Amino acid sequence: SVPLVAPSDIGDLVAAARSMRAQQEASAATRSEVLFDVVRAYYEALSAQSATQVAEASAEVARTLEDAIGRRKAAGTETQIEVDRAKGDRIEAEGEVQAAHFVALRADLSLAHAACLPLEGLELAFPQRPSIPGASSEARVDLARVGRPDIRAYEWASLAARSAVHAEALTLAPELQLGWRTRYRVYDPEDLGTPPHRWNVMVTLDWELPGFIEPAAEIAAARAEQRQADLALQRVRRETELDVRSAEIELEAAQAAVVVARERDAVAAANLAAGMILYDQGMATGLEVSTLKAERDASAAELLGAELGRDLAEVDLLEELGVDPLDVYAP
After folding, report:
1. pTM
2. Which residues, at least 6 apart from 304, have a Cβ–Cβ distance to it below 8 Å?
3. What pLDDT does residue 115 have?
4. Do the strands 197-206 and 2-5 form a parallel or antiparallel pair, or are they unpaired?
5. What is the b/e burial string over 216-238, where b = at least 16 CB atoms within 10 angstroms of the residue's CB?
6. CA distance 70 to 113
7. In the chain, what's the furthest Cα-to-Cα distance?
8. How far is the CA of 193 from the CAs of 16, 181, 184, 188, 190, in angstroms?
9. DSSP letter assigned to residue 322
C-alpha cells in the first residue's frame, strides 16, 4: 500500500511554499539594496565631477589674479611679495584641479564597478529631483511597512514558521492510504471459467498511534522558532517608524544646509567679483583679493558637500520607504 494523503506532508508543503516566498522577498530586498548603492555611487560621481569644474574655475581665477598682480608689479604699484603670493595661489589651485580630477576618476571607477559598466565612455547627467511619496510621516511609515521587501520577507518567514508548527501537529493525524491485494491459483484445465488471478483495491484510513513525547518535543521546538520569527517581525515593524522618521529629519536638515550654503556661496562669489574690480581700480590689495578667493573656494566646496548630502538623504529616505529605484531613477 502507498499513502494517498498524509496531513503532515500538506503542512510541510505549505511551510516550504511560504519559506520560498520569504526567500524571494529577501532576494528582492538585496536587489533593491544593490540598486540604491548604484544610485549613491552615481551621485558621488556627479559631485566629484562638479568639484573638478569648481576647481578649474578657481584655478582660472587664480591665473587671472596672478596676471593682474604681474601687470601692477610692472607698473611699479605692487610688491614682489604679492607677485610670489599670487604665483603660489595659482600653483596651489592647479594642484587642486589635479587632485579633484583623480577623485572624480576614482568615483567614476566605483560607479562603473557598482553598475557593471565599462569605464570608457561613461557619461554623467544630473537626474530629475525625485518626489518623495506620502503626504505625512504616518503615511510614509504605512507605505514602508507595506512596500519594503525585507519586511515582507519577515512576514512570510513568520507564516512559514507557523505552518511548520501545524505540520508537526499533523503528524498525529491519520493517513489515507491506497492498498491492493492479489491472489493467484494453480492452473486447472478443467476450471476454465475462473480467472487465474484476482486482485482487490482498497482505500484505508490508517492511524498509527505514536509516542507522544517525541511529537510534543518537535511541536514545542517549532513553536519556539515561530515565536522567534514573530518577534523578529515585530522588531522590524517597530524599527520601520524610527528609520523613516530619522531619514525624514536627515533630509530636512540636508535641505536646510543646502539653502544656507547656497546663500553663503552667492555672497562669497559677489564679494570676489567686487574685489577683483576694486583691485583693478587700485582700491584693494592682492592679499585682500586672495582672501576673498579662499572664502569663495570654501563656500563652493561647502555647497557641493551640502548638495551631495541632500541627494544621499533623499536616496536613504526612498530606500526606507521601499520604493523601487528603477521607478524613480531609471531614464
Report:
1. 0.78
2. 47, 50, 51, 54
3. 83
4. unpaired
5. eebbeebbeebeebeeebeebee
6. 47
7. 144
8. 54, 21, 15, 10, 9
9. T
